[in-house]
Amino acid sequence: MSSIAKVKEYLARFGAAGRVMELDHSSATVELAAQALGVEGARIAKSLSFHMGEGCMIIVMAGDVKVEATFGFKAKMLTADEALAMTGHAVGGVCPFALPEGVKVYLDESLKRFKTVFPACGSGNSAIELTCDELAAFTPGSEWISVTKLPHA
Predict the structure, then answer these.
(1) Given CA atoms 57, 79, 113, 130 in this order, what sign does their dihedral have?
(2) pLDDT tens digit sequence for 109-125
(3) What is the pLDDT of residues 52-92, one digit of tens each?
């Protein structure tokens, strides 16, 4: 089963599978996703995957921010091969949905500036529009954190 099919199956339990958009153009980067969706890049909910002990964690943050905080350990991003193996999603489609057991998801406060945000859905040409409350509800066990610094206006 493809990664996007797994995400749709996962989102079906929340009644949201039909909201997944499969785009005609790549949405594998913040810039490409913003262009494909016709929204500002900040509203793209980018998912970065990092090593965490023997496993990994995903931090979902606004498209215009970078991780600024420390985690009490050296946070090293997963390689493309590691991301696919550890999250089940290829880089460009990594998302907080349909993850293997044990992958920890953190949602960054930078997303809360927006009424809705657009995370990927398992492929480099997919997205779903969600409120922050929906994003949290669709990622049970996730935690809101603040590890980024907002860009200057």
Answers:
(1) negative
(2) 999 999 999 999 999 99
(3) 888 999 999 999 999 887 667 677 899 999 999 999 999 99
129-138 mean pLDDT: 98
Phi/psi of residue 141, each to 5°?
A: 90, -5
Provide the 3-class DSSP secondary structure of residue 92. coil
With b meaning 16 or more CB within 10 Å and e meaning fewer, what string describes 43-53? bbbbbbbbbbe
> If we measure between CA atoms, which residue out of 54, 153, 135, 41 comes closest to residue 100?
54
Residue of 34, 73, 43, 42 whose CA lies nearest to 57: 73
Helices (H), the chain: 3-12, 30-37, 80-87, 132-137
